[in-house]
Amino acid sequence: MSAVQEFNTLDGFISEMKKLEITKIAFSEVNERRAEQTKDDLLEVVVIREVTLKSYKDSVIYKYFEKNENLNTLYDRLVSEGFEVKRINNNIT
Question: Which CATH code for domain 3-89?
């Protein structure tokens, strides 16, 4: 069975990936507008921009989640750090 290790900071995630010599990261992103109930009697369209970074080694799944207005900046940082990053679109629509 796999264990899951979640990180609170991007720097912590990147540091651990380098320490473990993990070079491949899944970049699972959501970037869309969704209807959400913001009050008891109000439904609004809101913009959802978030990413979950995932990697795997020795039966351990490493994860980092963040809501971010600029997903491309985060993607570019990972690539510039030397990672092979696979973008995965998790939009509902």
Answer: 3.30.720.90
In the chain the first and final C-alpha atoms are separated, in Å, by 33
User: Which of 50, 59, 14, 53 shows the shortest CA–CA distance to 32?
Assistant: 50
CA distance 25 to 55: 5
Of 33, 25, 32, 79, which is closest to residue 53 (Cα–Cα)? 25
Instruction: Provide the CA 52 distance to its chain's centre, in angstroms.
Output: 2
Rounded to an integer, what distance in angstroms lies between the CA atom of residue 80 and that of residue 62?
20
What ranges do the domains of the chain cover? Answer: 3-89
Residues 37, 66, 54: CA angle, nearest 5 degrees: 120
Owner of token pair 């799944």 = 61
Q: Report pLDDT digits (tens) over 32-78.
A: 998 888 888 999 998 889 999 999 999 999 999 999 889 999 999 99
Contact 33, 45 (CB under 8 A): yes
